[in-house]
Write a structure and sequence with these properties.
Layout: E1 3-8, H1 13-23, E2 31-37, E3 44-50, H2 53-59, E4 67-73, E5 88-89, E6 95-103, H3 106-115, H4 128-136, H5 141-149, E7 154-162, E8 165-174, E9 179-183, E10 186-190, E11 202-205, E12 210-215, E13 218-223, E14 228-229, E15 234-235, H6 251-257, H7 259-267, E16 271-272, E17 275-276, E18 287-292, H8 294-311, E19 315-319, H9 320-323, E20 334-340, H10 346-357, E21 361-366, E22 378-381, H11 394-413, H12 419-430, H13 432-441, H14 443-452, E23 459-463, H15 467-482, E24 486-490, E25 507-511, H16 518-530, E26 534-540, E27 552-556, H17 564-583
Parallel strand pairs: 18-19, 18-20, 20-21, 21-22, 23-24, 23-25, 25-26, 26-27
Antiparallel strand pairs: 1-4, 1-10, 2-3, 2-4, 5-6, 6-7, 7-8, 8-12, 9-10, 9-11, 11-15, 12-13, 13-14, 16-17
Length: about 600
C-alpha cells in the first residue's frame, strides 16, 4: 500500500505536496518522491529518495512550479531504494507517473516494451505504465492513459503529468482509493481524504473504472469506455486531525476494517482458474519447520494444521527465540518457514540463519518487502500494507491466508489434493474477503458484548484443532491492549489444569465453529458452565444448537472449517478492541510494547 498525491493551483506545488505526503506517510514510508512541472512548462523536475518524507524534504531544492505529483511508498515490487521510488518516468523524461496498486501482468508488458526498445531503470511493476503511456502517446495524454489501462490487469490508483500537456493531471482508479479535493482555484489528489482535509472539505471519491482530467479550470471524469460521469461532490464533516486515521478513532480499528481489502490483495494474482500460483519455488521436502514469534507464532500453529491436512507433510512449529538455541536438528530435507510481519524480528532472523547453516531449505512469509529476511531466503509476501497499530490485526489474517494458499499448492503438487478438491477450496477462498466484511457488519453486536466484560479481571479462551491458535491469538490481543490477564489453551486440555481456574462468573471465550470436533467443544463448554463460567461462544450463523449452552453468541458466516478460523480471528480482534476501548486504554501504543522487535 502506498500514498499518492497531486496538486494543481495558484500556490507553489512543492510545500503542498510535502504536506500531503506527510499526512499519508502511514501508508508507506520506505521511500518518497515528488515531480513538479516547472514554471516554464518545459521540464519535469523530480526528487526522490529511499527513506521518509522528512528525508525527502531535506534533500530537495526549490523545484518551482504550480503543478505536481508525489508518492510515499510501501514496496510491493522491488526493494526500497531511490531507484525504485516513485515518481517514475518514460524514456524521454517528459512524462511522470505515480501509482498505488499491483500490476499483475507487468512482466508480459515489460517484455513487449523491451522488444520495442524501451529501457527500464527500476525493479518495480509501476515503471511499465509510463513507458506504455509513452508508446500510445500521440499528443493526447488522457487518450494514452486510457489505451494503456486497457492493457493492464491488476489494481491501481494513479496520477500522471506531462510536459506536452502542461496544464493537467490525469488520474485513474481501479481497486485502489483515490480522492480529488476542490478548493476554489486549487485542486488536490490523494489516496485518502485525510490528506486533503486541511485544504478543503469538498471532495470527489473516484469510482473503479474512472479516469479524471484535472485542470486549473475544473475536473472532467469519464469511464474507461469514455462515458461522461457527473461529478458527485461531497462535503466532509470530519475534523482534519481525527482524519489522520481516516475517521477511525484508532489505527487498530482502521486496520481491522481494512481486512477485506488486505485479504483481496493477498490473493491478487495468486488465485486463478488454474488453481494457485504463489510465484515461489516449493521444494520436495519430507518435513516443514515453522519458526516465528508472538502473533506470527500463532499463525505458524495454524499453518501446521492446514499443511498437514492438505499436503500430508509433518510440521513442527517453534518459537524462534527457543529454536535458535536448541541446536536444532534440521537438514536439506526440511523446509524451514520463518513468519514475520516486519522481516526484522531479531530472534526470527537468527533462527532462519541457524537453519540455513545446517543446510535446510528456507522460505519467509513476510509483509515488509526489502526487509532483512528478504536477503536471507525467498519470500512469500502477505501484502497487508503498513500496520501502525502495535497489536497485529490485518497482518495476522494475511499470514493465515498465505498459509492456506501454501498448503493447497503443496497439496496439489504432492497429489494429496485432487483438482476438484483444489477448485472447491479456491471457491471458498474467493468468498473470504466478503465474509470478513459480513463479520465487520456485525460490529455493533460485538461492541455491546465487549462492553459487558470491560471490568473483567481475567479471561480464558479455548478452542480445538485449528481453532486452538485462534484462542491463543484472541487471548494475546486482549492482554496486549486491555492489560487483562488472559490465557488460551486447547479445549481438550481442560481437565489437565485449566479447569482449576474456573470460578463463578469468569468469562470464557469458546471458539466453537462447525468442524469435526464441534461436539467435543460443546462438551467442554458444558464443563465450564457447570462450574459457573460465563461463556461467550464464537459460532456459525446457521448453528442453532450452541445458544442452549452459552451466555452470548458472536457469529461468523458459514464457510469451510479451515477458513472459519480467519473469520473468528476478526471477531476476537474487534472484541479485544472494544474491551480496551471501554477500559480507556491506549490502544494503538500499549505500554512496554513496540511494533517491531529488532533486538533480542
Amino acid at each position: 500500500m502506498c500514498g499518492i498525491v497531486g496538486y494543481i493551483g495558484t500556490s507553489e506545488a512543492m510545500p503542498v505536496l510535502f504536506d500531503l505526503l506527510k499526512k499519508l506517510e502511514y501508508r508507506g514510508y520506505d521511500s518518497a518522491g515528488i515531480a513538479i512541472l516547472n514554471n516554464g512548462n518545459d521540464e519535469i523536475r523530480t526528487s526522490k529518495t529511499e527513506g521518509s518524507v522528512d528525508d525527502l524534504i531535506s534533500i530537495t531544492p526549490d523545484l518551482g512550479g504550480h503543478i505536481g505529483i508525489g508518492h510515499t511508498r510501501w514496496a510491493t515490487h522491488g526493494k526500497p531504494s531511490t531507484m525504485n521510488a516513485h515518481p517514475h518516468s518514460d524514456s524521454t523524461g517528459r512524462i511522470a507517473f505515480v501509482h498505488n496498486g499491483i500490476i499483475e501482468n507487468y512482466i508480459e508488458i515489460k517484455d513487449t516494451l523491451i522488444k520495442l526498445g524501451h529501457e527500464f531503470k527500476s525493479e518495480t511493476d509501476t515503471e511499465v505504465l509510463p513507458h506504455l503511456i509513452e508508446e500510445y502517446y500521440d499528443g493526447d495524454l488522457e487518450s494514452a492513459v486510457r489505451s494503456s489501462l486497457s492493457m493492464v490487469r491488476g489494481s491501481y490508483a494513479l496520477a500522471v503529468i506531462s510536459v506536452d500537456n502542461p496544464g493537467k493531471i490525469v488520474v485513474a482508479r481501479k481497486g485502489s482509493p483515490l480522492v480529488i479535493g476542490l478548493g476554489g482555484d486549487d485542486f488536490f489528489v490523494a489516496s485518502d481524504v485525510s490528506g486533503i482535509l486541511k485544504y478543503t472539505r469538498d471532495v470527489i471519491f473516484m469510482n473503479d473504472g474512472e479516469i479524471g482530467v484535472i485542470t486549473d479550470s475544473g475536473i472532467d471524469i469519464t469511464t474507461l469506455d469514455g462515458v461522461s460521469v457527473e461529478n458527485n461532490i461531497e462535503t466532509m464533516e470530519w475534523d482534519p486531525e481525527a482524519a489522520e486515521k481516516s475517521g477511525y478513532e484508532h489505527f487498530m480499528l482502521k486496520e481491522i476494517f481494512e481486512q477485506p481489502d488486505t485479504i483481496r490483495d493477498t490473493f491478487s494474482g495468486r488465485i486463478s482458474a488454474d488453481g494457485i500460483n504463489l510465484g515461489v519455488a516449493l521444494p520436495n521436502v519430507r518435513r516443514v519447520v515453522i519458526i516465528a514469534c508472538g502473533t506470527s507464532y500463532h499463525a505458524g500453529l495454524f499453518g501446521r494444521y492446514v499443511i498437514e491436512r492438505f499436503a500430508r507433510i509433518p510440521v513442527d512449529v517453534e518459537i524462534a527465540s527457543e529454536f535458535r538455541y536448541l541446536d536444532p536438528i534440521v537438514d536439506c530435507g526440511d523446509l524451514v518457514i520463518a513468519i514475520t510481519q516486519s522481516g526484522e524480528t531479531a530472534d526470527t532472523l537468527a533462527a532462519i540463519r541457524e537453519a540455513g547453516s545446517k543446510g535446510s531449505q528456507k522460505l519467509g512469509i513476510v509483509n515488509a518487502l526489502g526487509s532483512s529476511i528478504t536477503r536471507e531466503c525467498q519470500c512469500l509476501f502477505t501484502r497487508a500494507g503498513p500496520e501502525i497499530g502495535v497489536a497485529a490485526t490485518k497482518s495476522f489474517t494475511s499470514q493465515l491466508a498465505c498459509l492456506l494458499l501454501l498448503s493447497v499448492q503443496l497439496g496439489k503438487a504432492r497429489k494429496t489434493l485432487s483438482t476438484a478438491d483444489v477448485n472447491d477450496f479456491v471457491y471458498e477462498l474467493k468468498q473470504m474477503s466478503g465474509n470478513i466484511q459480513r463479520v465487520l457488519n456485525s460490529t455493533p453486536d460485538i461492541r455491546e458484548c465487549a462492553k459487558m466484560f470491560a471490568d473483567a479481571e481475567q479471561f480464558l479462551f479455548m478452542g480445538r484443532g485449528a481453532n486452538y491458535p485462534v484462542a491463543l491469538e484472541g487471548a494475546l490481543k486482549l492482554k496486549e491492549i486491555s492489560y487483562i490477564p488472559a490465557e488460551g489453551f486447547p479445549a481438550g486440555e481442560l481437565k489437565h489444569g485449566p479447569l482449576a481456574l474456573i470460578y463463578d462468573g469468569i468469562p470464557v471465550v469458546a471458539i466453537a465453529t462447525k468442524d469435526p470436533v464441534y461436539e467435543k467443544t460443546l462438551g467442554n463448554i458444558k464443563e465450564v458452565k457447570a462450574r459457573g463460567a460465563t461463556v461467550i461462544g464464537i459460532a456459525n450463523e446457521s448453528d442453532t444448537e450452541i445458544a442452549k449452552y452459552v451466555d452470548y453468541v458472536l457469529r461468523i458466516p458459514d464457510t469451510d472449517p479451515w477458513i472459519a478460523p480467519v473469520l473468528s480471528s476478526v471477531v476476537l480482534q474487534l472484541f479485544a478492541y472494544y474491551v480496551a476501548y471501554h477500559r480507556g486504554c491506549e490502544i494503538d501504543k500499549p505500554r512496554n510494547l513496540a511494533k517491531s522487535v529488532t533486538v533480542e
